[in-house]
Each structure stands twice: as C-alpha cells, then as structure tokens.
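# step 3/5: fold
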Amino acid sequence: MELLRFMKSVGFRICVIFVVVAFMPTSSAASDAQSENWEIRIDYSGEWRALVESDNSDRRGYGSETITTYAASESATVRKLDDNSKEMCVELWKNGELVDSTCTSSAYGEVEVGKCKTNCGDPSVPFSEVPGFGFVNSILALACSAIYFRKNKS
C-alpha cells in the first residue's frame, strides 16, 4: 500500500514538472532574429557568378564588386567564369566586421563564404530552442495529466 502511494506521488510530481516546463516561456530566437547588414566583397578582375543564400539570388558580374544584403544570416558561393589562374578572393562582412574570407586561383574556381565547413552543430543551443520542443512538451504534459486524473478517478 505504501509503495502504491509513493508511485502515485512520484507520478504526480512528474506530471507537475511536465506542466510547469510546458508553460515556461521559451525564447523564439530564430523567429525574432533581426536583420543584419551583410556585405559580400568580391575581389577579382574577371567574370564571376555569385549565389547568395539569403535572397536565393543568382548574380553575375565582372571585376570587383560588393553585394549588400539584409538578413538574419548570410552565405554565398562565388565561381570564376573564366579559365585563368588569377586570384579571386571573397570576403563576408557582418555589420562592418569580417566574418569569413577565402580565395582561389583555380580556373573556374569556386569559393564559399559563411557556410559551415566543419563541426556545424551548435551544442550550446538549449532544448527549449529546438523547433517543436514546446509543442511536444505540451502534449506530454496533457497526456500525463489525463492519465493521472483518470487513475485518481477510479
């Protein structure tokens, strides 16, 4: 009898924990992310093509140019469109600070800036910011509460 009372008490505590966590405010960093001022600086004396991620645009140009965008994040892939060994360098700037840069001297060479190159996961992101965490937690809290109250009714 004492074990049953203990199990009910533990079950109630788990339900309370689910309910409290389900209704805790979670940050919505992804949806509230503000646009930043990004610059993609292409330093090259030949013809190039740039694929800009934030606005999904395909841009072409000749000679050095700066592409300015406003987004929460940015990355780009730039390719030389000619067959020579001239160096093409691309820099990614965010609010006046250099974020990434890379160069190529290959014929028809391609460079990427702003894209994750190694170990791309961010272990510092808490579970509460994982998409769907709040919804799943709310469903578990409701299910747990329903089970608890159903058992206590009988």
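# step 4/5: annotate
The first helix runs from residue 2 to 22.
# step 5/5: archive (pending)
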